[in-house]
Design brief:
By secondary structure, the chain is mainly alpha-helical. The chain is built from three helices and no strands. It is 49% helix and 0% strand. The mean pLDDT is 82.
């Protein structure tokens, strides 16, 4: 099994923190901010940066994770 470099969790945590700051500036609600904070977490607990999973993830985060998985199977739009 390949392992991620040690700095990856810190990079992903920083990306989430920046997303939350920008979300606050845009006036997003608490649920959206939490989803941004948990953007790289996964239901099985193998996400980053905290490794939270299952019931510890918010409903919007779980919905976004499913949408990401579905999107992987959709065809890409044709380039013009």
């Amino acid at each position: 099994m390949l392992r991620a470099p040690a700095e990856v969790p810190a990079i992903l945590a920083a990306r989430c923190e920046v997303a939350v700051v920008l979300g606050r500036r845009l006036g997003l609600g608490a649920a959206a901010l939490r989803a941004l904070e948990e953007a790289y977490e996964r239901h099985d607990g193998k996400g980053q940066p905290r490794g939270h999973g299952g019931g510890r993830l918010s409903a919007p985060t779980r919905i976004l994770a499913v949408a990401e998985q579905v999107a992987m199977f959709l065809p890409l739009p044709a380039a013009n």
